[in-house]
UniProtKB/TrEMBL annotation:
Primary location group: cytoplasm
Entries under InterPro entries matching the protein: DIOX_N, IPNS-like_FE2OG_OXY, IPNS-like_sf, Oxoglu/Fe-dep_dioxygenase_dom, Plant_2OG-oxidoreductases
Function: Involved in the regulation of shoot development and salicylic acid (SA) homeostasis.
PANTHER family assigned: OXOGLUTARATE/IRON-DEPENDENT DIOXYGENASE
Subcellular location: Cytoplasm; Nucleus
Family in the record: Belongs to the iron/ascorbate-dependent oxidoreductase family.
GO cellular component, one term: cytoplasm
Alphabetized GO MF terms: L-ascorbic acid binding; metal ion binding; oxidoreductase activity
Source species of the chain: Sphenostylis stenocarpa
Protein name: Fe2OG dioxygenase domain-containing protein
Record-annotated Fe2OG dioxygenase domain positions: 281-381
Pfam families per UniProt: 2OG-FeII_Oxy, DIOX_N
Key words of the record: Cytoplasm, Iron, Metal-binding, Nucleus, Oxidoreductase, Vitamin C
Length: 430
């Protein structure tokens, strides 16, 4: 494999090739790792030769779904192979894999290494903090200050809470889940129109976490949309755009109120986080996660243990559970209260608060029964804001624990590296 690692890097054309090499469905017989490994070895031997055989490499990175088609086309241009490749392209997602695979097994490249501790769960749902949004925004000062206090405790002790009475209607939430799911029901060709190749593309359909870096694939397809400061969403299915626009706007309103409460809980001025992070022009990324049923869920991960890069992530999912959070080293499955939103603190909360409020490690598991849909909206600073620990939260006995970094660079750092259980914060820790 090292031969291929040497050609990773900024050159997107080579990355396109690596994508083909790393994604076994695209070549050989589906899911047969032996063939794939053999193929990789042969490719490594002939890599230089292949490179010189493809005169039109440079156009590759300007294309989206056509990248792979053209690449293969250049190498093996027969109609039969073209059709075969088209067929394999349809398996560029777990959904298509599940729908086309009649076997009851999991392809070996999806099998995750798990430690025995990974499977031990602690049923502590009842202890997960619940915040009442109506109290947080109440005109009664005692009620409000009590809610702010609870919010601060939740961020400090858990990095996670459920939010009730948030004012976003159940109808809208259901619409988001339903229409979000229907995006994945589009044909693979239609979805591939959105298969962006850059991390910060305004709309990006994909699978796993980041195919360029994943050593194991995750049982997840996704659609990511940058919804603020500029709103972006696919034009298909027709109702999706409008629904996501309303949902993102309402979610942002809720988050802004929470950030006021969190600033006050830290002894800072109400608009502190808002101003310092330029939330007005903040980067809001909405992700629809699609986890199809899996014949052997214990072997795979929907999303492995990770922390989110933003300040606060708002999350909801359909009737199927699967989110687990790490609390005091233990994995706790989350069963949300009816109509509640789930919130987790992200890395930029930890950076800004100089570690006072830690970003919570979480993961998503899958099930045998049905498709799980979750919708997460990461609310972060403006992409060009440089964030470091707030000077008010740094002192002689509490020196700055993270170096300042531009939010855009942090996102790229996180997304271009494998999700390997370590938080990306380790990369900027002083
Ligand atoms: O699906 C879930 O419950 C979690 C999703 C998640 O952690 C993410 O999108 O970052
Ligand atoms: Fe997450």
């Amino acid at each position: 494999m090292s031969v291929f690692e040497t050609v990773t890097g900024p050159n997107a054309t080579f990355q396109s090739i690596i994508l083909v090499l790393k994604f076994p469905f695209l070549y050989g017989h589906t899911c047969h790792m032996i063939n794939v490994n053999l193929f990789l070895i042969l490719q490594s031997l002939f890599f230089g030769y292949i490179k010189s055989c493809i005169p039109n490499l440079t156009y590759l990175h300007n294309t989206k779904q056509q990248v792979l088609l053209k690449l293969l086309h250049s190498v093996t241009p027969t109609q039969k192979e073209h059709n075969h490749f088209q067929e394999k392209l349809n398996m560029f997602s777990v959904k298509e894999l599940v729908e086309s695979n009649c076997t009851s097994s999991v392809p070996s490249n999806y099998v995750c290494l798990k430690t025995p501790e990974d499977s031990i769960l602690y049923d502590e749902t009842d202890n997960i903090p619940t915040i009442d949004f109506s109290q947080l925004t109440s005109s009664n000062p005692d009620e409000r200050s009590n809610a702010i206090h609870q919010l601060g405790d939740a961020c400090r002790d858990w990095g996670f809470f459920m939010l009730i009475n948030h004012g976003v209607s159940e109808t809208l939430r259901e619409k988001v889940l339903r229409e979000g799911e229907s995006f994945f029901d589009l044909s693979q060709e239609e979805k591939m129109e959105y298969a962006g190749e850059k991390i910060l593309d305004p709309i990006r359909y994909g699978t796993s976490f980041n195919l360029m870096v994943d050593k194991t694939f995750f049982w997840r397809d996704y659609l990511k949309c940058l919804v603020h400061p500029h709103f972006n969403a696919p034009s298909k299915p027709p109702a999706l755009r409008e629904t996501l626009e309303e949902y993102s706007r309402k979610g942002k309103g809720v988050v802004e109120e929470l950030l006021k409460g969190i600033s006050l809980s830290l002894g800072l001025e109400e608009n502190y986080i808002h101003k310092r992070m330029d939330v007005e022009m903040g980067c809001q990324v909405l992700v629809i996660n699609y986890y199809p049923p899996c014949p052997k869920p214990e072997l795979v991960m929907g999303l492995p243990a990770h922390t989110d890069h933003g300040i606060l992530t708002l999350l909801m999912h359909n009737e199927l559970g699967g989110l687990q959070i790490q609390h005091k080293g233990n994995w706790i499955p989350v069963n949300p209260l009816p109509n509640s939103f789930l919130f987790n603190t992200g890395d930029h909360m930890e950076i800004l608060t100089n570690g006072r409020y830690k970003s919570v490690v979480h993961r998503a598991v899958v099930n045998t029964k049905a498709t799980r849909i979750s919708v997460g909206t990461a609310h972060g600073p403006n992409l060009d804001t440089i964030v470091g620990p707030a000077p008010e939260l740094v002192g002689d006995d509490n020196p700055a624990a993270y170096r300042a970094i531009k939010y855009r660079d942090y996102i790229l750092l996180q997304q271009n590296n494998e999700l390997d259980r370590k938080t990306c914060l380790d990369r900027i820790r002083i």
